[in-house]
Design a protein that fits this description.
The chain is of the alpha+beta class. About 30% of the residues lie in helices and about 20% in strands. The chain is elongated and about 55 Å long. The protein starts with a helix and ends with a strand.
């Protein structure tokens, strides 16, 4: 095994659909897929290029699609609110194609 399955096993991921292609395909998926938290990590990385990590107060996510290896991810963000104390709320979307 090489690539994503090996990397997933190295970090302790043992959920079969994420690492074993035959099981994933038997479950109706086209192949192994990435853990949803990987997309969250990409978004947090994007945010922390703008502001220091210690300034992040919280993050809420909703997972709505599976990301397969090789898909291009596109992040889009808008400022959805600015509080009186200067805190900024962002509405971020990560789409896969």
């Amino acid at each position: 095994m090489t690539g994503l399955p090996t990397d997933a096993l190295r970090v302790g991921e043992t959920l079969p659909p994420l690492v074993l292609s035959p099981l994933t395909k038997a479950a109706g998926h086209r192949d192994v897929f990435m853990h949803g938290m990987l997309g969250v990590a990409y978004l947090v990385r994007m945010i922390t290029h703008w502001v220091p990590q210690e300034r992040l107060r919280d993050i809420h996510v909703r997972f709505s699609a599976i990301t397969y290896p090789g898909e291009q991810l596109t992040a889009v963000g808008v400022v959805s609110a600015i509080a009186p104390d200067g805190a900024v709320a962002l509405a971020l979307t990560l789409r896969n194609a």
